[in-house]
Amino acid sequence: MSETAASPPARDGDQRCRIVATAERLYREVGYLKTTVADIARELRMSPANIYRFFGAKAEITAAVTRQLMSEVETALEQIALSHGSAGERLRRMILANESMNAERYICDRKLHDMVEACFAENQPIIDQHIDRIDALLEQVIREGVAAGDFAPCDPHLAARLVHVATIRYCHPRLMLECADRPTPTSAQMMEFCLAALKAGAATERD
Amino acid sequence: MSETAASPPARDGDQRCRIVATAERLYREVGYLKTTVADIARELRMSPANIYRFFGAKAEITAAVTRQLMSEVETALEQIALSHGSAGERLRRMILANESMNAERYICDRKLHDMVEACFAENQPIIDQHIDRIDALLEQVIREGVAAGDFAPCDPHLAARLVHVATIRYCHPRLMLECADRPTPTSAQMMEFCLAALKAGAATERD
Asked: Chain A contacts of B199, Cβ < 8 Å?
């Protein structure tokens, strides 16, 4: 069948995307634990065998869903990093966006939280990659802040790691749940604390 | 039998302590999950019924063991808080002691980590109390640092919470395990970051 046929077959990339999107929807609606590969296939009116052409097991679909959710957060933070405003203002917005997007994904939607718990246990490389990408975005903005004289000279890579670790309570799904009853300090207060340290120039020693 | 008899019976407080100490030892040696109330009774050469005079269930013994481990950390940090040295120096030592004691307890000894996981899930009040006590010690030292002019004027309670949350990766047992492959930033680097913020006076807004 050619590309110009009335109903062209979905290309592999499209099919893969549809499987991931459908899995995400079922995980949200039915729950991660209750959703089977057969359920996903039924929703897509395809055979389970066709799904297994793309994913070796449900765990691989879950990894792709998690990667997708995390990549949306990375994209949003990248847009803020590239936007106008002082470095401090962009860092504030990045940390707040990270918090609110993770809260929306994993805290408000407890069914997705189950998925992240399972994925966290099995896919550390996905989490590591996400952390590294956020670090790189923070580093880029901190580097610009130092160049503009907003922040004191520092090691921007170390400074980015410090800001990320200091705000881990506001982006790590399990911590966000555990700390839900402790609303203060807020992420905004923590960011002012971090910005004061960046202005004072603390992130210099390699230890 | 009087207090002056040759072998005076252990008083209730003593018996309770012995049960907790024996449970802790068995949790370390045999493992939390594998240790039963009957095992603890056998080690103490007492009947399980006698243990149930003090603890309604294994979960209550576990809570007492956890409380004991945490109280040792609180005592060590209190001694540092009350010792000589500048406020900054004492804060550094407190956070490093918190990290090393928790690492010794829950990370090096994976069997105790299992216990903490179980206890965390069921005894949030114990964890909350521990957090509040550490907060209070940090607050006291920060208050002294402000009085001495080492730190800028701030809300010492908020500042203590900020330092504690910024260093959560170095004292939360599960996070310490998850981040074991990410040795930097170190807790020492994070403390320099926090001290710079305290000197600059960031923890002022109530948000």
From this structure: 200
DSSP letters, B12-76, are HHHHHHHHHHHHHHHHHHT-TTT--HHHHHHHHTS-HHHHHHH-SSHHHHHHHHHHHHHHHHHHH
Q: Read off the tokens for A99.
A: 């918090």
Nearest Cα to Cα of residue A192 among B154, B171, B148, B132: B154
Contact B190 A165 (CB under 8 A): yes
Residues B184-207: pLDDT tens digits?
899 999 999 999 999 998 777 544
Chain A CB within 8 Å of residue B17 CB: no
What ipTM was reported for this prediction?
0.87
Which residues of chain A lie closer than 8 angstroms to B176, CB-CB?
Answer: none
Contact A166 B166 (CB under 8 A): yes
What pTM was estimated for this model as a whole? 0.88
Q: Tens digit of pLDDT for each residue in B159-169?
A: 999 999 999 99
| Residue partners of B146: CB distance under 8 A and separation at least 6 | B152, B153, B154, B156
| Short-list A24, A195, A176, CA closest to A100 | A176
**Residue A105 near residue A68 (C-beta atoms within 8 A):** no
- Count CB pairs under 8 A between chains A and B: 98
